[in-house]
From TrEMBL:
It comes from Natrinema limicola JCM 13563. GO terms for biological process: amino acid metabolic process. This is Aminotransferase class I and II. PANTHER family: ASPARTATE AMINOTRANSFERASE. GO terms for molecular function: pyridoxal phosphate binding; transaminase activity.
Amino acid sequence: MDYETPLFFHVMEYADAADRDVIDMVSGNPDWEPPEALREGLREYADLEPDRFQYAPSAGLRELRAEIAARRGVDAEQVVVTNGAGEANYLSMARALERNRGNEILLTDPVYPYYPGKTTMLGGAQRFVATDDEGQLDPTAVRAAASDETAAIVVNTPNNPTGAVYPAETMRELVAIAEEHDAILISDEVYDHYDLSGEFASALETDSAHRIVTNAFSKSMAITGFRVGYAIFPPELVSDARSRHMLVNVATTRPGQYAVLQALRETGPDYYERNRKRLRKRVETFTDALEAAGAEYTTPSGSFYVMARFEGYPGTLANVERLIDEAGVAGMPGEAFGDSRREWLRFALVTPRVEEAAERLAAYFD
């Protein structure tokens, strides 16, 4: 089987090997501080009894699952704590395909590249539905693409790479389409704390046995290296998801779960609002420079990515490498996200050097 390895690692390695200063705008690693309570939790953990350094319960620490469940309005038994949102999405897609209600996964175009990669790995077939120029997904187009072969519809809101935030009506319609075809809507909501529009709607707002919601603390707490995520399953799908999780990972990090739990309990909304404020300022700075450079660009409603199109400079891997070598800015090629954004480049606004990067791009394309 030929797996589809995402281009992220190639671009990062190329940038690291460059013989000049390069501003990294490739990966979604927040550069800001995690919650102080999270650091305190880690310090506390170092002094706990030796039994706390052993396997965690496979489905996750009971207290963490209960905290997540209370915040999301579900039963704790529906929650599986995973090795980041990556494993949460893998388990969700696997469960959808294991139901034997079809072999097709509906994905958006543009798409986060790990979804088609997971589809291939799990033996499913990909089918794409194009979003509009702002990244919004039309449920009518999804309904037209869905069939009895549809095992799952996978969406990401707020979206990577477009920055779109799907409204409540869209989410309700997507759940309804999944129900009509006995499929599963998988809603990856890892950027929910970076909704800049106030329009974010979780799939959990629609009660259904045909939807799974995935999330993680990687982005919201700026801890992508901790690998603490979760999936919320319908009761009838959770048992086999737990079994697969146990066979693949046994459990995820115990100290990470402990620290995340402390951060959840002790971090107020001002922490998240400060980060959104920082992000709004970066979006304005970066898009103003793109405007001055004569580029076409997206203004994200959520997440922390901007896509840009420069005349005569399509979003190929070769052009991304040229940009690293000649401008000292590393972004992602649009072709990594599907056919519809091949003319575009994607930049992650998770560096304090956003203004400098924008100036370099403006000078390069002047």
